[in-house]
Amino acid sequence: MTEIVGDYQFNRKDLIGHGAFAVVFKGRHRENPDLPVAIKAITKKSLAKSQSLLEKEIKILEELTKLQHENVVCLLDCKETPQYVHIVMEYCNGGDLADYLLQRGTLSEDTIRLFTKQICGAMKALQSKGIIHRDLKPQNILLCHDGSISNPSSNDITLKIADFGFARFLQDGVMAATLCGSPQFMAVEILLSKPYDCKADLWSIGTILYQCLTGKAPFQAHTPQALRAFYEKNLDLKPKLPPDTSAELKHLLVNLLKRDPKDRISFEDLYEHPFLKPPKTQPMPVPARVSGVVVDSGVGAVSGQSNNSASDAVSTSVSPSQSPSAARPSRDGRHRVGSYQHHHRSSKHSAPSSPGTGGMSYAGNGLGSPMSLGYYQHHHNQQLLQQQQQQQ
């Protein structure tokens, strides 16, 4: 049965994922059926105690959508029925970064560099609006690519920050105190219930990059309480890094993962960090010539960057057996807190999603990332339509 949401429509059989109080469907534009969208249906019964949170989140999404930033998921429409609030967002066809890492284990430094630049682009957009995310993690970073590419390379992938259920506006010099986020990626100061500012997002970025490099979170424990106890006991946190990690990436990770936010790298220094600069290469030698024949010298351009494998990965761990893949749910997705379970993982024997499969995670807070209760409707512009058509 087809359901109508403003200029969009969806069929309930086209389920993408679900959370505690919401489900997400793949839909499409009614006048342009080739344009896919993601439609989140939130039950009104779940919204009784969270109306202010919803209004705040929708305001944040409105502000960010005005920017039309390529690394931030855009809000397209918001409608309500007697039973549901429907949120229409742009569709990302490559799944999320968590699944991307689950499939690949670790990423090369060149790929980490590409992804970090895009994350930085998204954070610049948030900063321009005075927004702190507070729940940055691989599950909340969606991937998009040209749908015509069956196995896209990292150069073909666009990252988009999603799930602003915990986000808030935070003025310079003002500290927040709400405990929120996902413990493995949550800044020390948040987990210890101390006041915090936008530098909490820097810690989360550090944990994401560390997982990209090693396949693990930098500091782990079986429970949030155990992780908090670990942070309380260890005043000098030093993440262990693979020995072949470049000096630039080591410096970046160590300074993102400073326990004291005052010692943590600033956003400005992150954006200008040497690791994000093009890697140095050796000049290509001129091949020798013998009687007019070019002889291959066997030497090519060398980037000097390491390709880390899962066997290289070393992490500081409270519980060595606990890794992000273990912290994520069993393959059936039942224990995934704060993120939509993937419909394609409803069977424990199903394979993880990969770019091109259309599997995705529109993450949410504990309420399924509910958004606005109002009659807000944001009319997407032609540029966004064209961009999304190219991703099909």
Give a topology summary.
Layout lengths: L1 E4 L2 E11 L3 E8 L6 E8 L7 H17 L7 E6 L3 E7 L6 H8 L4 H20 L2 E2 L8 E4 L13 E4 L6 E2 L18 H4 L7 H16 L9 H10 L13 H10 L10 H5 L16 E3 L2 E3 L28 H4 L13 E2 L39 H10 L1
Antiparallel strand pairs: 1-2, 2-3, 2-13, 3-4, 4-6, 5-6, 7-10, 8-9, 11-12
Instruction: Specify the structural class.
Output: alpha+beta
Q: What is the 3D form?
A: globular
- The separation of the N and C termini measures 23 Å
**How much helix, percentage-wise, in residues?**
25-40%
Uncertain segments are 288-361, 365-383
Could you spell the SSE succession in H and E letters?
Answer: EEEEHEEHHEEEEHHHHHEEHEH
Largest sheet: 7 strands, antiparallel
Overall mean pLDDT stands at 77
CA gyration radius, whole angstroms: 22 Å
Beta-strand proportion: 15-25%
Number of H- or I-type helical stretches: 10
CATH class of the domain at 95-278: Mainly Alpha
Going by CATH, the homologous superfamily of the domain at 95-278 would be Transferase(Phosphotransferase) domain 1
Total strand count, please? Answer: 13
CATH topology of the domain at 95-278, by name, is Transferase(Phosphotransferase), domain 1
CATH architecture of the domain at 95-278: Orthogonal Bundle
Biased composition (Low complexity): 303-328, 382-392
Biased composition (Gly residues): 356-367
Protein name: Serine/threonine-protein kinase unc-51
Organism: Aceria tosichella
